[in-house]
Amino acid sequence: MSSEKLAEVFTYESLVHAVAGAMGSVTAMTVFFPLDTARLRLQVDEKRQARSTPAVLAEIIKEEGLMAPYRGWFPVICSLCCSNFVYFYCFHSLKTTWLRGQRSTPGRDLLIGIAAGVVNVLVTTPLWVVNTRLKLQGAKFRNTDIHPTHYTGIIDAFSKIVRDEGAAALWNGTFPSLLLVLNPAIQFMIYEGLKRQLRRGVHRELSSPEVFFIGAVAKAIATTVTYPLQTVQSILRFGQQRQPTERSRILSSLRSVVYLLLNRVRKNGILGLFKGLEAKLLQTVLTAALMFLLYEKIASSTFRLTLAGGVLVTWLGNLAFSAHRPTVEQCIGVNSNYGKLSECVPAEMDIPIFSLFHRT
């Protein structure tokens, strides 16, 4: 790959978006983590009688202790941080490379989101398999078919899964996960589309309530549409279902997805496919809304600080060397959404990441 192509992929702007997305998601998930615990129990444990989120959380605290809703927090946060870093980096890198300054459209946002999601799934699925096992470890299940697991940590879980089930088990649930790339793709398509509608052609920074609202709406729609597949994904990652024997992994994965969907419908009806949706919506909508709000603010503040730092460096350089101060036309636009102040970062600041380590 030529240095020009690398320069388009490894940019300071994409890194800022990735770090901001990772930090925003980690903070938001920490705040609403107990809701995710309730959602996962409802998806995996079919025989649990409590069906509302408060009732499930009350049961968990009563039977397993006050901190039980935060069981598995660390591996989930590690997985989420890596996953969102990869997704945000790929999304904005692909968007910059493909659009090249052109106006985006919902169709383009959807395709870019799908591509970023595929990369994210293939890279981070092993982390999510491990964190699902750790999060459910020690839980009291009503379903007697579920066998308890005993892992001492992330590394131990990785090694035992590979030893006992084979390396391929780390990618359990990859097929429904690949189908579920539609979830963030739909979410980003709606989010970016609503941002364009709110701006109505005026380049301005959205207010905090606006960002929170459109982030919540985008996630609610994406989650409801894809929830049955999310349930299957959780069951496959937990690893308690019978392993298929077909030679073709794609065919066996498809059969597993279809079997689990039909089995859930047979036992609980159509609504069984949406068991835990209340907890999922409550958790994921609030988490996504807060995540987008933090992401926008972190990215905006970073670009502003970069601009201020670049101006300061240039000013000091002028004093020391009587150098010509760069004008707006000599700056590089970062194709961001944060208003006029961030539209122009000094050219020397917007350099490829790899160049930072290979300066001659």
Question: What do you see in this structure?
Answer:
Belongs to the mitochondrial carrier (TC 2.A.29) family. InterPro entries: MCP, MCP_dom_sf, MCP_transmembrane, Mito/Peroxisomal_Carrier. Pfam families: Mito_carr. With 360 residues, this protein is mainly alpha-helical. It has a single domain, classed as Mitochondrial carrier domain (Mitochondrial carrier fold, Alpha/alpha barrel). 67% of the residues lie in helices and 1% in strands. The protein contains 12 helices and 2 strands; from the N terminus they run ααααααααααααββ. It has a two-stranded antiparallel ribbon with strand order 1-2.
Helices and strands, with pairings:
Layout: H1 3-9, H2 12-31, H3 33-44, H4 53-64, H5 73-99, H6 106-136, H7 154-165, H8 174-179, H9 182-199, H10 208-238, H11 249-268, H12 277-321, E1 331-332, E2 345-346
Antiparallel strand pairs: 1-2
Helix pairs in contact: 2-5, 2-12, 3-4, 3-12, 5-6, 6-7, 6-9, 9-10, 10-12
Solcar repeats: 12-97, 104-197, 206-301
Keywords: Membrane, Repeat, Transmembrane, Transmembrane helix, Transport
Subcellular location: Membrane
